[in-house]
Amino acid sequence: MNDHHTVPVDTPAAEVEEVRRFWERLGLPGLIDVHTHFMPERVHSKVWEYFDALGPMTGGLEWPITYRQEEAERADLLRRFGVRAFTAMLYPHKPGMARWLNGWAVDFARRTPDCLHTATLYPEPGVEAYVREAVEAGARVFKAHVQVGAYDPADELLLPAWGLLAEAGVPVVIHCGSGPAPGKHTGPEPIARVLARHPRLRLIVAHMGMPEFEEFFGLAERYREVRLDTTMAFTDFTESFMPFPRTALPRLADLGDRVLLGTDFPNIPYPYAHQLHALERLDLGADWLRAVCHDNAAELFGTAGPAQDGV
Ligand SMILES: [Zn+2]
């Protein structure tokens, strides 16, 4: 079962305990993780192949995936960690794919009630119509991947869709920074053009915008609906090649109401708990951690409520 890419399928109880102790210490009812990947099996295997091949998606980095269990097991592991709500980040790399992914995501959300129903989009004719359909079908969050999709997020074809999402108040997790590898349209400039047109669009900049952390902080400081997710930022893995500038810590502290926990589970080359410890060691305090790891997302997605019993 275990080749060099695989860890034992049975996640040790100690690891589950470590994650749970983190949020229990903070007095939280659990975690909300806005950046986790669930995709049709065929697509997911393709993505894992990319990571294995050290392809352009990883910028040639060695990237052993930690969690390769079956889909149901992966969802269950998040529950055992105490993740009360998570997402199914999926994204097309070519036209004609987004609508199909969205169809799969409707079904996934139906059979996975703790997953925030996720949808995606691509600059193509008909995008506004299928984005509207997805919102009407109950999509709570969208995912856009500027590097993999290789499109300009300010593409004319997308503007009506952004307008619709801004109007509906549906957040969009967008991979738009130039990490781990740059793309033709990554970086803050195209996003600034989108926001100039739709200043109330609820963009959640994935990976804290790495490596353009500070430029994306600037956009969040300027536009109050712009948020950032922590996905992979501050970890040993990321710090080794895209370190967070320590001088920007005060800005990160001030943006505490706009930062959301994201992890990239299951596509991560280290255990889940490491992301949490990476946030903790920033030393921004328990209030900051509570907001980032649960409260901000609970407010944004309206998932606040009494703690659930059991695991
Ligand atoms: Zn991701």
Automatic annotation (TrEMBL):
GO terms for biological process: secondary metabolic process. Residues 32-302 form the Amidohydrolase-related domain. The keyword Transcription does not apply. The keyword Phosphoprotein does not apply. It holds the Pfam family Amidohydro_2. InterPro entries: ACMSD, Amidohydro-rel, Metal_Hydrolase. GO terms for cellular component: cytoplasm. It comes from the Bacteria. GO terms for molecular function: carboxy-lyase activity; hydrolase activity. Keywords: Lyase. Gene3D superfamilies: Metal-dependent hydrolases. This is Amidohydrolase. It comes from Streptomyces antibioticus.
